[in-house]
Every structure is written in structure tokens, then in C-alpha cells.
What we know:
It is built from two helices and 23 strands. The two termini are 35 Å apart. The longest helix is centred in the first third of the chain and has 8 residues, at 53-60. β22 (270-278) and β23 (282-289) form a beta hairpin. Strands 7, 10, 11, 13 and 14 form a five-stranded antiparallel β-sheet that branches. Strands 20-19-22-23 form a four-stranded antiparallel β-sheet, with no helix packed on it. It has a domain at 204-290: Macroglobulin (MG2) domain (Immunoglobulin-like), CATH 2.60.40. The protein is mostly beta strands.
Amino acid sequence: MYSVDSLDVFYFDEAYQRMLYYPPPLWLGGWFYIPPWLWIDGNKHSGYYSTWEDKVIDRMAQPSPVTITIWGNYHPDDDTGTVYARFRNDSTTTIDGRVIFVITEDSLYHLTPYIEWHNQVPRDYLPDHNGVTVSILPGDSVTVSQQFTIEQDWNVDFCKILIWIQNDSMQVDSTKEIWQGAVSKVTDLTPGIEENRVGKVPQPTIITNPNPCVDGTEFAFDLPAQSQYQIDIYDISGRRVKTLSGLASGGRESIRWNLRDDIGAPVCSGIYLYSFTSDALNTHGKVIVR
């Protein structure tokens, strides 16, 4: 959510410039930027935000050629940190795209003619609204990092870092495809895990294999010994269907999901989202069940 009116309390010029990156919707016979619009696969959808949910859920269910893993650090003593994002190309062709990082804030009260509470308000693009261009070979991955500062008038408990990778090339339907996105709360970034006195510590990651899967998949990861971990798996509507947990041994760890829910019933084919939480790694991703 952002305002195009420079006099509005939530106006942010980088967000406005980011809007100009896209072609405006056709409205009343002319090209105008008239919010709110939702663009999906080249089709514009007007109306109130509450009418968009079904369209967004349907779009999320489509397979993506990119997997994103987020980690980093946040230091509450000086409100600074670094966020890392690894982009893995799961397709068979090279991906040339643009990576965008933005800090947003939720639960901001400001009375307007239409709404009172404002969410996903852009606060800062990292390093700016232009982002970073990347090229990822098939099966390969790249890692992008950005430093950030939480300003004093922001509530860090309501701040998130949104990340996405996007195709810069205009499509025939006048869109610029976003291949994948991810989000992390700033306070979920563990302080100080990225370096020590002798150099950088390998960053913890989680890999699902196979993915897509037919009869099961394994979550593989590296955690320090005695680290407790939990994997919560949700269907596309947000309903939790399965929880996996354990205590890490200190080496390469793996835990299998047999594609059954907590009561033992097989899940349906589709997209499932997982949240991985531990002392050293907090991330999320998706599993495609066929």
C-alpha cells in the first residue's frame, strides 16, 4: 500500500518511482495511474482490496521457477542489520531478472475516506527502488545481501522485509512477470549469525527434495547440535495441515514428510507452504504436491 499524493502522510517517493516502473492501467479510454488496481497476468482488477484475495490465492498456486531462502541479522541495540536472500533457479533456462528488497510497516493508523488501518506501507527500498540485476544459470543460485536501518519512528515489531525477483522484459500483455517473492519479519532475523572474528560462517539453508513431489519429500538442513527445529506446513488457504519437529544432531539433518496431515490422511495435490523455525534459521518456502 502506498500513496501517489505527495501531501499524504504515507507518501514515499521511492514507492512512487517504483510504481512508474509498470505501465499504467487503461481507464476511461486513457492511461492513468488510478489506485487501487490489481494486475494479474496482464488483467487489471479494480475494486476494494477485499475482492482480490481469491485472485491472489489462484496466482500463488502456479509453480515458480525460483526458490528464495532468507536469513540475516538484526541488532536492536542500534536498529541496524543485514538481510541475505538466495535465489535458486529451478528451471532449465537462464533467468535474467531484477531483485527488489523493501522494508514495509503494518498496523499504521491514519483516517482516510476509505480505510483507517494501513498495512504493507513501504518504508525503505534497499539499496533503492531500482534494486539489483542478477543472472542465474539453470540449477544454480545467487545470493544478494542488503544492509538496512530501522528508523526511530517505525515500530520494528510491525516491520517486514519483502523480496522478489522480477523479469525486466515487458510481456505482450504489458506486464513484467514476478517469478517469486518472499517475506521475513525484521525481528525474525537472528542477530550476529553472519560473521565472527575469523570470517564468515556458512549460512544455514533448507532444501526440499524432490520438489515437486508425488509420494513424499525430505527437508534437508544444517543446524548446530541440540538446536530444536519445527516445520509447520500449510495449505494454500493458510490452514496448518502438518507439523514436523526434532532436535538437530549437528550435522546434515533431514526429515521426511510423507504427504499426510496430522491425523494421517493423505493431502491433495497442490501448493503447500512451509515455515521452518529454529534458533539459527527461520525461513519459509513451498512444496508442490502432484
